[in-house]
């Protein structure tokens, strides 16, 4: 978990805001607490994974900007509204979640990102009395090939990219 984070932390975010907060759930009790707050189709995935990460974002991330972006002493004032903090927190924590998955994959782990959770219930169970909000979850481990679907298709460059 530390090795994954130590790779992922270097991924860029806007203004180096790094709002993501990670909860690595490894105990059966913690994973069960999450499974109870997940969509039915995700519950067994959560229970069977050796580790599930709750990827969340801290709405108070601007308070850390003097540390994270010391060359911009006024950076903590760049997010004056709740809406702006929520938008940038969600966007940049999503980037950080992707970096975490790339880091885990580079270390040989399989990753199963999932969005099917009751975010309000997850926030109450894992982030009570904080300003941290859940974004999505990631199962980490070595997946079984028994029920693994073939890799889905991807678009070719020319289908989704344009060079101007």
Structure characterization notes:
The chain is of the alpha+beta class and 164 residues long. It has a single domain (2-160), classed as NADH Oxidase (3-Layer(aba) Sandwich), CATH 3.40.109.10. The chain has helices spanning 2-8, 28-35, 40-48, 65-68, 82-106, 119-126, 157-160; strands at residues 20-25, 51-58, 110-114, 132-141. Helix 1 packs across helix 5 (82-106) and helix 2 (28-35) runs antiparallel to helix 3 (40-48). The mean pLDDT is 95.
Summarize the structure.
The protein is 40% helix and 18% strand. The chain has helices at 2-8, 28-35, 40-48, 65-68, 82-106, 119-126, 157-160; strands at residues 20-25, 51-58, 110-114, 132-141.
Shape, per Cα inertia axes: globular
Model regions low in confidence, pLDDT < 50 over at least 5 residues: none
Radius of gyration (CA) equals 17 Å
User: What portion of the residues fall into strands of 2 or more residues?
Assistant: 15-25%
Helices and strands, in order, run as: HEHHEHHEHEH
- Reported by name, the CATH topology is NADH Oxidase
